């Protein structure tokens, strides 16, 4: 426990990512099982003891410290766990024996009840020093909040045992704390945990943005980049799971997709919603907006299933039956994928077609002409590329289409957060609902907070302060004289906004100090771009 | 007994000894001041007459230039202030020359502690527990969360961090008067006899300490030393320089800070400190409360710091106490 406490303090006080990695890796290398596994679980937020809550700690302290002194201390320190660790009365006589290990703590806390938790926690706190008490309370209440992402923990794991991080990603899923098979594999004591027995997530292959690479279509194949959410559908032993980009399972949100893959396979595709309400052709997809109402639901109503049915446009196949195809070139996988299509429900699955273009110039023309709401751009995949986790240079590129542009007028500004906390940096802008010279008004069409240099930020902050006409809490209304050129990916009809329009990915392209406000665009212009 | 200590007045700019028209650590210029120690928030220049220990006067001389009207008062030598008031300077254990001031008038004894600590410090004389009727105490670390560990443990962590990072230097932020010299002296006591490098702002005070008989060993200015030579070095700088552009010239400095505030993680984190060293020249909660119990005054007044918690402690222990609202004393970088 003392070692874990030292790790927590180190991570809290080390600003650099590399420094954090080194510390976690060092800890994992020198700490025995199962403690290191439990520490890893704590770092990635996978520890939960329902019987121990922050209230349990407050209750313990109320029995030991004067309430006024507790309140003054808590107020100064700003953290209940830390205040309690500092104020905990040292037991007399000093306890015998070593401090409890993480494994021992897990066993004890795992079998405790709400009624027995306070006495148990007190006896553990008695055996620890200040740093140990802090770590124990954080560990037991599951609230580390030290800014370590699951990805960082996996990279540190890979670093600790000199194993590829992609393999760590792959084997991690399906394991639960304290991850003994994972450590056995990493230390060379056992073969990798089997991943073929459960419907597990495999890390996605990702693309780099295309910049000025010289690409020839003899080496690369072009494919649409659909604007839905990237998913992986895994079927093993009669069970199917749907995973999103981060490896989160979303099967419950999309039961019609999860139930539509009847044979063992791992497929990669874009989850989309049928585009009927967007007036799309039969078999078309709707915009991202239509998909949005399906996201994040634990259960889906019949009405919603009927109104916004989901399907997957398939990009790739990783595993077909028992054949792991990931080492094979894209062309071979594509052939296997095409062969699979007839076996799949046409309502739920279709194939992402490749684009025929003679050369890059022709492709650029096709890309520029595509204004389908469900198309984000073009993908370029090396024909001989294996399916590898993450972004590997030279294999896959994404070539997003040029953004749409419109001139809007700054209407409201709000202070930002983080390093922009003192600046007016969140901007709401609008377009005219008719002829401004004939008394038309501005209606808000979007909000953006990025797209500026630091210099521009300062200038805008000053502009807002000097041109405020009204204040509503944190929001300032400006005199509506400044024009922004706003770039966005697409625009959709929306009932949520008074203008009836919602932009996707709006950002400020340029500040148009040269343009008078009445020359900014009208809603009709924007409405004509709706897809 | 005149009762209720009416001859001592706590005013916003300091404590006033009414019959002798003398102030203690006033925050504005007065005709006659008693100064407990050399920190800037207690020792200000411009008084008509300044009575303080010789070491405090030497410190003030370095900071403000030698002033007319400096009256040295050795420890335990009563000074007659007139109108029947005497003042006696007693060691406070805070920094070199620091003193509590015992005031006696009409049969009543009042002690003003200034800043003090009880833990051992090789650079100054230890706090002298002295009985009195009214005890006017500081409360900088007047919260039960503040417990300063033995300094040897913190110095060992500093040396351990240096050992573990041979490519880096350890940059210790420490207040230029008192803290810096104490850290250096404790490093020597722990067996570190190599050179210790100093930020320019540290040099004068270190020289003054040595002149006052506190040996500090091999000290060198850091300015002009090539970066490569500083790998594995210990460098002391004012806390304000820790994350300043100045520190960019150093080889990947591991930032440490010697301060009682480092007991609280978020304080360390806010300052970007990687190695918090809980080293303070002030009394911690246990020292504050033990000292009140040992001195056992009829009444306790609490000045600058976290008065409320110490007031609450006095209430819980059936001690008469009140909090004073004095201005001008800062949390400084202790």
Task: Give an overview of the whole structure.
The complex is a heterodimer of chains A (531) and B (334). With 531 residues, chain A is an alpha+beta fold. In chain A, the strands form five sheets. In chain A, strands 14, 15, 16, 17, 18, 19 and 22 form a seven-stranded antiparallel beta sheet that branches. In chain A, strands 4, 5, 6, 7, 8 and 9 form a six-stranded mixed beta sheet that branches. Chain A has a five-stranded mixed beta sheet with strand order 2-13-11-3-10, with no helix packed on it. Helices cover 33% and strands 23% of the residues of chain A. In chain A, strand 4 and strand 5 form a beta hairpin. Chain A has three domains: 2-141, DNA ligase i, domain 1, CATH 1.10.3260; 205-400, DNA ligase/mRNA capping enzyme (D-amino Acid Aminotransferase, Chain A, domain 1); 404-527, OB fold (Dihydrolipoamide Acetyltransferase, E2P), CATH 2.40.50.140. Chain A is globular, with a radius of gyration of 28 Å. In chain A, helix 10 packs across helix 11. Chain A has 19 helices and 22 strands. Chain B has 334 residues and is α/β, with parallel strands linked by helices. Chain B has two domains: 8-145 and 282-323, Ribonuclease Z/Hydroxyacylglutathione hydrolase-like (Metallo-beta-lactamase, Chain A); 151-277, Rossmann fold (3-Layer(aba) Sandwich), CATH 3.40.50. Chain B is built from seven helices and 19 strands. In chain B, the strands form three sheets. In chain B, strands 7-8-9-10-11-18-19 form a seven-stranded mixed beta sheet, covered by helices on one side. A six-stranded mixed beta sheet of chain B has the order 1-2-3-4-5-6. In chain B, strands 14-13-15-12-16-17 form a six-stranded parallel beta sheet. In chain B, a hairpin with a 2-residue loop joins strand 1 (8-11) and strand 2 (14-17). The longest helix of chain B has 14 residues, at 151-164. Chain B is globular, with a radius of gyration of 20 Å. Chain B starts with 7 loop residues before the first strand and ends in an 11-residue tail after the last strand. The model of chain B has no long low-confidence stretch (mean pLDDT 93). Classes of the chains: A alpha+beta (531), B alpha/beta (334). Chain A binds chain B through residues 9, 12-15, 65-66, 68-69, 72-73, 76-79, 82-83, 86-87, 134, and chain B through 143-145, 147, 263-266, 268-269, 272-276, 306, 308-309, 312-313, 316.
């Amino acid at each position: 426990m003392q070692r874990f406490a030292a790790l927590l303090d180190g991570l809290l006080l080390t600003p650099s990512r590399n420094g954090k990695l080194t510390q976690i890796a060092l800890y994992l290398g020198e700490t025995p099982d199962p403690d290191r596994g439990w520490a890893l679980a704590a770092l990635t937020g996978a520890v939960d003891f329902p019987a121990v809550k922050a209230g349990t700690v407050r209750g313990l302290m109320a029995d030991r410290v004067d309430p006024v002194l507790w309140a003054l201390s808590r107020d100064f320190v700003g953290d209940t766990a830390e205040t309690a660790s500092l104020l905990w009365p040292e037991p007399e006589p000093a306890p015998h024996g070593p401090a409890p290990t993480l494994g021992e703590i897990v066993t004890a806390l795992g079998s405790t009840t709400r009624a027995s938790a306070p006495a148990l926690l007190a006896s553990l706190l008695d055996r620890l020093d200040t740093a140990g008490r802090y770590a124990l309370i954080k560990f037991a209440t599951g609230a580390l909040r030290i800014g370590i992402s699951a990805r960082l923990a996996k990279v540190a794991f890979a670093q600790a045992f000199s194993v590829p991080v992609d393999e760590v990603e792959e084997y991690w899923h399906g394991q639960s704390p304290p991850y003994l098979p994972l450590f056995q594999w990493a230390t060379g004591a056992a073969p990798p945990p089997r991943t073929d027995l459960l419907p597990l997530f495999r890390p996605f292959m990702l693309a780099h943005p295309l910049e000025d690479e010289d690409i020839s279509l003899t080496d690369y194949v072009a494919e649409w980049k659909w604007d839905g959410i990237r998913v992986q559908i895994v079927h093993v032993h009669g069970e199917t799971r749907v995973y999103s980009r981060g490896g989160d399972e979303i099967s419950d949100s999309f039961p019609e997709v999860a139930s539509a893959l009847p044979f063992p396979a791992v497929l990669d595709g874009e989850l989309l919603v049928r585009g009927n309400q967007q007036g799309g052709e039969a078999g078309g997809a709707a915009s991202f907006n239509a998909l949005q109402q399906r996201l994040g639901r634990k259960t889906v109503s019949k009405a919603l299933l009927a109104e916004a049915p989901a399907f997957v446009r398939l990009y790739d196949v990783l595993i077909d039956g028992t054949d792991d195809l990931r080492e094979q070139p894209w062309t071979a996988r594509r052939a296997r994928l095409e062969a699979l299509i007839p076996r799949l429900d046409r309502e739920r699955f279709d194939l992402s077609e490749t684009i025929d273009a003679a050369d890059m110039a022709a492709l650029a023309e096709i890309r520029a002409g595509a204004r389908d709401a469900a198309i984000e751009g073009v993908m370029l995949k090396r024909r001989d590329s294996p399916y590898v986790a993450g972004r590997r240079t030279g294999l896959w590129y994404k070539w997003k289409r040029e953004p749409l542009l419109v001139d809007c007028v700054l209407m409201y500004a709000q202070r930002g957060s983080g390093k922009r906390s003192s600046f007016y940096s969140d901007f709401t802008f609008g377009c005219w609902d008719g002829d401004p010279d004939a008394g038309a008004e501005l209606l808000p069409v979007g909000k953006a907070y990025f797209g500026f240099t630091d210099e521009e930020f300062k200038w805008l902050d000053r502009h807002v302060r000097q041109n405020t006409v009204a204040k509503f809490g944190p929001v300032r209304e400006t005199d509506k004289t400044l024009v922004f050129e706003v770039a966005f990916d697409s625009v959709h009809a929306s009932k949520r906004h008074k203008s009836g329009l919602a932009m996707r990915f709006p950002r400020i392209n340029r500040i148009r100090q040269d343009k008078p406000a009445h020359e900014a665009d009208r809603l009709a212009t924007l409405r004509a771009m709706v897809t | 007994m005149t009762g209720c200590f009416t001859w001592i007045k706590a005013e916003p700019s300091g404590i006033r000894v009414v019959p002798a028209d003398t102030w203690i650590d006033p925050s504005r210029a007065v005709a006659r001041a008693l100064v407990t120690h050399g920190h800037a928030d207690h020792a200000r220049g411009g008084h008509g007459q300044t009575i303080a220990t010789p070491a405090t006067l030497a410190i003030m001389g370095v900071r403000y230039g030698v002033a007319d009207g400096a009256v040295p008062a050795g420890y335990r030598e009563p000074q007659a202030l007139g109108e029947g008031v005497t003042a006696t300077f007693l060691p406070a254990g805070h920094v070199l020359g620091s003193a509590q001031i015992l005031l006696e008038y009409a049969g009543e004894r009042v002690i003003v502690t200034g800043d003090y600590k009880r833990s051992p410090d090789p650079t100054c004389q230890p706090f002298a527990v002295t009985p009195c009727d009214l005890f006017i105490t500081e409360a900088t670390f007047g919260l039960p969360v503040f417990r300063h560990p033995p300094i040897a443990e913190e110095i060992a962590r500093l040396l351990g961090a240096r050992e573990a990072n041979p490519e880096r230097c350890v940059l210790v932020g420490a207040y230029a008067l008192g803290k810096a010299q104490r850290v250096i002296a404790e490093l020597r006591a722990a067996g570190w006899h190599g050179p210790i490098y100093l930020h320019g702002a540290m040099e004068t005070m270190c020289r003054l300490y040595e002149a006052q008989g506190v040996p500090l060993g091999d000290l060198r200015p850091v300015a002009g030393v090539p970066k490569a030579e500083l790998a594995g070095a210990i460098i002391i700088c004012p806390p304000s320089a820790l994350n300043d552009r100045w520190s960019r010239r150093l080889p990947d400095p591991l930032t440490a800070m010697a301060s009682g505030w480092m007991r609280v993680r978020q304080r360390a984190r806010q300052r970007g400190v990687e190695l918090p060293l809980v080293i303070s020249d002030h009394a911690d909660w246990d020292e504050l409360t033990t000292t009140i119990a040992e001195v056992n005054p009829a009444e306790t007044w609490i000045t600058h710091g976290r008065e409320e918690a110490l007031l609450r402690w006095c209430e819980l222990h059936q001690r008469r106490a009140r909090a004073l609202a004095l201005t001008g004393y800062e949390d400084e970088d202790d």
